[in-house]
Amino acid sequence: MNRTVVVHGATGTQGAPVVSRLHRGGWRVVAASRHPGPTPRGVVTAVADLGDRDSLVAAYRGADAVVVQLPLVFDAGLIDAHVANVLAALKQAGVERAVLNANAALPPDEMGIPFVDGRVRLARQLPDAVPFATLVAPQFAYMENLAIPSSASRLRDRGELAYPIPPDYPMPWVAMDDVAMVVAEVLDAPAPPATRLVCGPTPLAGDDAAAALAAALGREVRWISIDHVEFEAMLAPHLGPDAARGVSSFYAAPPTVPDAAEPPGLVRGPTTLDAWAASQTW
């Protein structure tokens, strides 16, 4: 019997790998969107607006599972409505399983940043809405952050890999497809875990990351540490000013050195930075 899963953000850069993984795994995938667009063959669509609770209930009804990925929204009132609507719709539709793909590492408590606090609140309340709830969160930066147009053009034109972390910070870059792999594994598990944290296979300092991309591009690449203000300027043409400001704010303070002990529930994805870079069209 086919199982049905509703996936939010299904056509976005983070949702598309989830759709692909679940579709290949035998799920009947429903791509939920305010304005449904083209989807892979075999994937159906549903009109679902996070600001419209009734549309969510209609999309969720009859589904075995829902994958929630909140959009890059930084209006506190809108975020509060999204969280409340998702929780209420899951309950009303009687969904058994839900996975929150947080898209970023989450602090243990709310911290006064609406974009973060909404995800913290949703992760905390999700077990009250469905019998089986799981938080999946990448613990460090996505490899795909290096391939946005402004970053990719800087790599091509100037041979610079620019990112707002110190050159000696050990960053275990994670591929979005590896996060999607964990989402699929959680949904297939008879007894899904409460939390799965995902990172890349190997921590890389700046020069090591640059060397990985140099091998893929076939040219010299230098690591450049930038501040969050310059990073915001790089993101703005791609994400828009509000989202760029919100994302870059995560990098305003220097990153803390990761603990030597791995946190419980950590999964190291198999995709290396050089293998990922070789698969991109730069």
Characterise this structure.
The chain has 2 domains: 4-138, Rossmann fold; 143-172 and 201-254 and 270-278, Alpha-Beta Complex (UDP-galactose 4-epimerase, domain 1). By secondary structure, it is an alpha/beta fold. β1 (4-8), α1 and β2 form a beta-alpha-beta unit. It has helices spanning 15-24, 53-60, 76-93, 114-129, 149-158, 176-188, 206-217, 228-239, 241-248, 273-278; strands at 4-8, 28-33, 44-47, 65-68, 97-101, 132-138, 160-163, 195-199, 222-225, 266-268. The chain is built from 10 helices and 10 strands. α1 crosses α6 (176-188) and α3 (76-93) runs parallel beside α4. The mean pLDDT is 92. Strands 3-2-1-4-5-6-8-10 form an 8-stranded parallel sheet, with helices on both faces.
List the main descriptive attributes of the protein structure presented here.
282 residues, alpha/beta, Rossmann fold, UDP-galactose 4-epimerase, domain 1, 2 domains, 8-stranded parallel beta sheet, two-stranded parallel sheet, 10 helices, 10 strands, 17% strand, globular
Q: For the CA atoms, what is the radius of gyration? A: 19 Å
**Count of beta strands:** 10
Shape: globular
- Give the name of the CATH architecture of the largest domain: 3-Layer(aba) Sandwich
- One letter per element, helices H and strands E, the order comes to EHEEHEHEHEHEHEHEHHEH
Low-confidence stretches: none
Biggest beta sheet summary: 8 strands, parallel
Count of helical regions: 10
